[in-house]
Amino acid sequence: MGKDRNIANISRKTEQAVQNMQHFISNSPWSGRGVITLIQEEISNRGEMDEGAMLLLDESGDEKAGKYSVGAARQSNGRQGKVDNCQVGVFTALVKGHFSTWVDGEVFLPEGWFSDDYADQRQRAGIPPDRKFMTKLELGWQMIQRAKSNKLPFEALACDTFYGRSAPFRDQLADDNIEYYADVPSNTRVYLEKPQLGVPQNKRGKKAIKRRVLSPKALRVDRLREHPETSWHTVELRSSERGMLIADFAVISVWTVREDLETRQDTLIIRRYKKKCSYTLSNAPASTPLETLARRKSQRYFIEHDNQNAKSEYGWDEFQTTGLLAWEHQLALTILAAWFIAETKLDWADEHKRDPALLEEYEIDILPALSVANVRKMLCAAMPLPQLSPLQAAELVIEHLDNRTRSRKSRLRSQRSDLGP
After folding, report:
1. Cα separation of 78 and 252, whole Å?
2. 1, 104, 250, 259 - which has most CB atoms within 10 Å?
3. Is the separation of the CB atoms in 214 and 197 below 8 Å?
């Protein structure tokens, strides 16, 4: 199916009773988390993922018309670049080379959902009574720990500025021996030398109450683009169907200071592509080659691609049920579908070796890999969906008219109730 992938339409296409499908997604007690754990264990057993894989952390929002979907509220919707009524999920993906797939997710419940005003909505959505408010950073950390527990073979983690701007989150990763590549805003302040801390004195010799950084002067990371000691290098990141992806990179050793004045040394990676620059802090060892830093800093693109595939290819944004259990079931099935596609691509690459002569024939340096759309198209041929018979079409029209009539009756009843006697 390429559109309208809701439970009612899926039931018709697969000739299953709508009530059975609705129960399977919304009420059946099977564990979505258990399915995801099994998938992660399968991924960890693939030999292709043993070296060089990265874990990626990101969020994705979907607009919701009503207020009853679990987690729905007026909040930032990164997809639309605005604040609106939406549902936000925090996701992790695993990437190696051109292979990437969702591996975990958590729905974000805004703090307001835990107020007394939302008590009925929490009960309606099936939120456990002991569930507490968790920030997106805490949800991300929880998924990272699950990935480690399930032995997902990642060597580093990348995240965008929402997560990277949090010094405590970066410290948490470093303290857990996780190599991170955390994007930070352009106004992030760093030091080119280890900060000297002390209690300053005024002109009269009186000391201030609190310690602070005495020297050197803090610099915004975007000011370092033009710093005389900044050295730029051009790096070929990866081959793509549009050609070779090339960008300029600068790597600078910097220091950052926490609120408690603890200092930490980081590597600042600046990427310049055309006129746009982005900034990343990393705790990678000083001996890490420039090409490795540049490649790992640039891997975050793949989770954005996976987020889009989840919506365009797997129908994630056509999800219409409202409860937490249904959200977790839908997530598990989406990750299962993504892993099925990814494993198919891996198997094909292993079983059907590329003919080197094709490179010469096409006069090209890389042959395209199977896409998600390619595999879905082959599934359409291998597992064709049934077409509606005239009788089924008539029954569908009658059902639609019946639903519209009942909906109007319900609205009229509500209007009369609001008007009173």
Report:
1. 30
2. 104
3. yes
Query: Rounded to an integer, what distance in angstroms lies between the CA atom of residue 57 and that of residue 134?
Result: 16
| Burial class of 145 by CB neighbour count within 10 A (0 to 12, 13 to 18, 19+) | exposed
Name residue 240's beta-bridge partners.
Answer: 243
Residue of 138 and 259 predicted with greater confidence: 138
Q: How many angstroms separate the CA atoms of 292 and 237, rounded?
A: 9
Whether residue 319 contacts residue 74, with contact meaning beta carbons closer than 8 Å, is answered with no
pLDDT of residue 209: 63
Where do runs of H (alpha helix) occur along 275-389?
Answer: 290-297, 301-312, 324-351, 356-362, 372-382
Structure tokens at 156: 């580093």
- Residue 162, pLDDT score: 94
Residue partners of 246: CB distance under 8 A and separation at least 6: 234, 235, 236, 237
For the stretch 341-366, pLDDT in tens is 989 888 888 888 888 888 888 887 77
**CA–CA dist 183, 121 (Å, integer):** 36
Cβ atoms within 10 A of the Cβ of 16, count?
A: 13
Domain boundaries, the chain: 1-56+67-87+97-153+313-370, 161-200+210-299
> Which H or E run contains 408?
helix 390-419
- Amino acid (1-letter code) at residue 239: S
Whole-number Å distance between alpha carbons of 104 and 50: 19
For 46-82, the pLDDT digits (tens) are 887 778 899 999 999 888 877 889 999 998 887 566 7
At residue 114, does pLDDT exceed 60? yes
Measured between alpha carbons, how far is 78 from 82 in angstroms, rounded to an integer? 7
| Residue whose C-alpha is closest to residue 247's, from 270, 231, 264 | 270
Residue 128: CB atoms within 10 A of its CB come to 8
